[in-house]
Amino acid sequence: MHRTRVRIVQDALDANNTIARANRSDFDRHAVTVLNLMSAPGAGKTTLLERALAAPLQAGTRVGVLEGDVQGSLDADRLASLHIPVTQLNTGNGFGGECHLDANMVRSAIDQLPLGEIDLLVIENIGNLVCPAEFRVGEDARAMVCSVTEGEDKPLKYPLMFRACELVLINKIDLLPHLDFDLEKLIYNLDAVNPRAQRILTSARTGEGVPQLRSWLAELSDRRVATAAAG
Amino acid sequence: MHRTRVRIVQDALDANNTIARANRSDFDRHAVTVLNLMSAPGAGKTTLLERALAAPLQAGTRVGVLEGDVQGSLDADRLASLHIPVTQLNTGNGFGGECHLDANMVRSAIDQLPLGEIDLLVIENIGNLVCPAEFRVGEDARAMVCSVTEGEDKPLKYPLMFRACELVLINKIDLLPHLDFDLEKLIYNLDAVNPRAQRILTSARTGEGVPQLRSWLAELSDRRVATAAAG
Q1: Residues of A in contact with B14 (CB under 8 A)
Q2: What are phi and psi of A39, to 5 degrees?
Q3: Cα dihedral sign, A59-A64-A68-A71
């Protein structure tokens, strides 16, 4: 990468972080915890959210979703049936659209978010294992969904994404009997790039791991309350 | 998208196209046909290539591969066992790496490509359904792999990618009995964005569709020969 390009990228990330802090300040003022949820296309983010949010979370945590898509509102339409607030954010105004959410895009949607009525905002990012990991949007935590159909090598091929997340949801495990997939090898590769990441084995189809995900989401929201009480 | 941003994107694409034409001119001089092969992460590009290139192609078409990855050479190492020339191109020099190949990256690898010894160059792009479709690299044709595990909605969510390709390989069809997946719905959605795209149903695991892919690759190479003879 040329030096000029490195500088341009660095400037863009600095500008992004400034706006991310402004977003964070807005979220803080409303005591809303924010999760940035990422994955490759079709790994199962929306279906997992559908399952996890089908019933109210523990301790009455109220959830809203900001749905990022290049185009359309297919995922938002699916989640809207859960009777939780869902806000659509499209990135497709460019030629092929943006391949990630950045802080400014999230900022442009903040006025539409019902921050006074929710405790936890889940931002469903664009399906992509590269750029979404580079841009903070003002979130408290980052999590990703990794489908077992994608192969065991993904942590090694997209290390920044796997390093950026504190939770990795290993999804579609109902398909394991039908795949040439070595779960231990995936875990080994994940350990190599991010040994501290928490892991939950999930199947949006059978519901396996969904209670653990629900608990994790409720605890994430509690984390802010605990921090505030200690402060 | 702001007007300034649109202009910057347009300038970048114009610059890219200029370099893509220079690449194309080099490929033409050596009579090498070039395929830009794209997909989401883990859709099965490398495994399909392993199967398709395990034996020499029809009519003695000699194949080389340019392997694009953010980091590492896992895929190139797999393909190298096929005894065809494989060149690695990494995009990971930036923070999280580039999420696509562009004409300049391919240009930087051209001196390492054995253009005098091959008839067909397959460029395996970074796993991503957004940006790779925006950047021409000097290729004759574009194809993509779409795994049935990714869901039926992908043509509607990533329309530029599906529109950019003349061939869509619908892969992992051995998993169909185990998925809540409606193949007709995927075809319907593909028809909605690109009715002219050729489709081949494939399973890298069982080998289904691989002979058709091999024929398509050989015919792609012949296309150039036919064009040259007519010209």
Answers
A1: none
A2: 180, 175
A3: positive
